[in-house]
Amino acid sequence: MKPSLTLASTTLALATVVMSGQFSAAGTIESFVEPYRRVAIPAPEIGVLADISVVEGDQVSKDQIVAKLDDSILRSSAKVARAAMESTGTLLAAESDNDSRLNQLDSYKQLKEQGNASPREYQRALSEQAKSAARLQTAKEELELRRLEFERVNVQIARRQITSPLDGTVVAIDKEAGEFVSPTDPVVMHVVQIDTLKTVFSVPRSAAVDVAVGQQVELSVGYEAITCTGTIDFVSPIADPQSGTVRVKLRIANLEGKLQSGSVCRWNLEGYESDQRISNAPTSNQR
């Protein structure tokens, strides 16, 4: 490469870094805190939203119902299925007939032993009792199928209820009651967990050798420089060959809500030389 091109490339790179404003103090790397979990809650079925029971900013708990799809048709089906399940006339008739056939068979057996009934008559009674037992079994199976049908309808009704998968805060509602939820656009709202936050740093390889999962480190969050403790959740086993850094994810407790998601987060790496400054603004592939 020609010297003039090398100088131009170096100048351009330096200008880019200076303009980005991402130089940190000596031995300090920066990132941003974000919700520990962010979930886009979809509707499990297609249909019209009948009700949304929360608003943005509401605190929700895990498995709490936050919205419902219209289920009027399914509830009518459930009533029919319940009536069919509780209809036991066929079963009672089959049980009565089977008891009668058993008594008749027992009578023919005694008569046969006394020589007052022919083997043919006994075989006929035995055959009739077997048919009666089969009808009783069919009635029981039909009743079980009706019970299962009732349970199936109830499961379908439950799937029309949209629940939160975590304890968190509603930060966005994408749809309103009366809108249709389609398979191509199923998301109804977004919930985040902010009682715990996370941050992702790009740590130089020279410093990453001293960090491990479970280790606690001191961090500084926000322009107010709030001091807090972060716990290392993950240390990437691979390094980025271009930047010479290792991806490290930390978990930060935020039970009192003093830390705001999106704030800058600084980590002072002891023994990390000032001439090894790097930019640690998280990119999309760090999340």
Describe the structure.
The protein has 287 residues and is α+β, with helices and mostly antiparallel strands. The protein is built from five helices and twelve strands. The protein is elongated and about 110 Å long. Among the domains are: 27-37 and 193-269, Elongation Factor Tu (Ef-tu), domain 3 (Beta Barrel); 71-159. The strands form two sheets. The chain has a six-stranded antiparallel β-barrel with strand order 1-8-11-10-9-12. A four-stranded antiparallel beta sheet has the order 5-4-2-7, with no helix packed on it.
Low-confidence stretches: 1-26, 271-287
Cα distance spanning the termini: 37 Å
Q: Output the helix-strand order.
A: HEEEEHHHEEEEHEEEE
What's the story with the biggest beta sheet?
6 strands, antiparallel, barrel
- What is the structural class? alpha+beta
Comma- or semicolon-separated keywords:
287 residues; alpha+beta; Elongation Factor Tu (Ef-tu), domain 3; four-stranded antiparallel β-sheet; 5 helices; 12 strands; 36% helix; elongated
